[in-house]
Amino acid sequence: MALTRAWYRKSVAPWLWLLLPLHALFVAISTWRRKRLQAQNLPKLAVPVIVVGNISVGGTGKTPVTLALTRYLKAQGQRPAIISRGYGGSGPFPLRVTPETSAAVCGDEPLLLARRSGVPVVVAPQRLAAVAEVLRSAPETTVIISDDGLQHYALPRQFEIAVVDAARGLGNGWRLPIGPLREHKTRLESVDAVIINGKLRPDTLPGVRPPAVYEMQLQPRGWRRVSDDQPCPQLPAGKTLALAGIGHPQRFFDTVATVTSRAFATRAYADHYAFNEADVKQVADYEVVLMTEKDATKWHGFAPQHCYYLPVEAELPDAFWQQLDAAIARFTNDT
């Protein structure tokens, strides 16, 4: 949309200044809310909480980071669980998500996490309610990962991770609705780690000095058929469409271009777009339809045989895992 495109230009488009009154209102309300929550006495939880979030709207790569954390912690002998807001889900909340839960009920990202992680996933707009449900239904949990929630200051946390898209960075540097930021860019200086999705560039974090910055690479893991999740070593030939209903569709289209040499059309939808059976008719002219794994959660049940999705995995440097281990050890020693 035009507003999103304007946000990610380096200078502020003149017509965006018309939104200055709304910007001032947003800053005032968000600042009041943050100070009110920070003034409260937070509950002491029995397990450490890792928050994965961002300070901008739209996709930055939080879900692959959450899955990478889950894999690593399980390999270390931990028993992680995941909590999420459940954006786009109808509830009721708090809700324990299973691989069979409908995306319409729990949201697309929590369903993806439940299918890929193999750990308890609970969604609730109030993260403390999600934590309580995790500890009730999965008392063996030793660490909780909050998928999103950087601005949910009512949730205690031991380790904060902010994910930033390398290509788009912080956009024009303004907060909503003039720019894409939920908080001032200096918020990145108070998190424990900033993960850059892609190659860090000089203009990715202008005027910001985070305590620790790590580059993340997303590695494609091979196409799978949407209808039955079976691997597809080689895509069939034919007229091809790549579609994406995520925060930054171009990232997916660029990935498709790197893993296949075929020509393909593209179609972008709004983030969290609720695909349904009517959308099948909209792609009927194509012999191969490619999509993200998040979008595939909403195509299950009605996807034709010629629809495929591409799982990706995040790769992070050893220094990041060492910093995370140290934070968990500090929590353990203090309790």
UniProtKB/TrEMBL annotation:
The chain crosses the membrane at residues 12-32. One of its GO terms (biological process) is lipopolysaccharide core region biosynthetic process. The keyword Glycoprotein does not apply. Keywords: ATP-binding, Kinase, Lipid A biosynthesis, Lipid biosynthesis, Lipid metabolism, Membrane, Nucleotide-binding, Transferase, Transmembrane, Transmembrane helix. Pfam families: LpxK. ATP binds at residues 56-63. It catalyses: a lipid A disaccharide + ATP = a lipid IVA + ADP + H(+). GO terms for cellular component: plasma membrane. Pathway: Glycolipid biosynthesis; lipid IV(A) biosynthesis; lipid IV(A) from (3R)-3-hydroxytetradecanoyl-[acyl-carrier-protein] and UDP-N-acetyl-alpha-D-glucosamine: step 6/6. It is an enzyme of class 2 (transferase). One of its GO terms (molecular function) is ATP binding. The keyword Nucleotide-binding applies. Its EC number is 2.7.1.130. Belongs to the LpxK family. Transfers the gamma-phosphate of ATP to the 4'-position of a tetraacyldisaccharide 1-phosphate intermediate (termed DS-1-P) to form tetraacyldisaccharide 1,4'-bis-phosphate (lipid IVA). This is Tetraacyldisaccharide 4'-kinase. It comes from Pseudidiomarina insulisalsae.
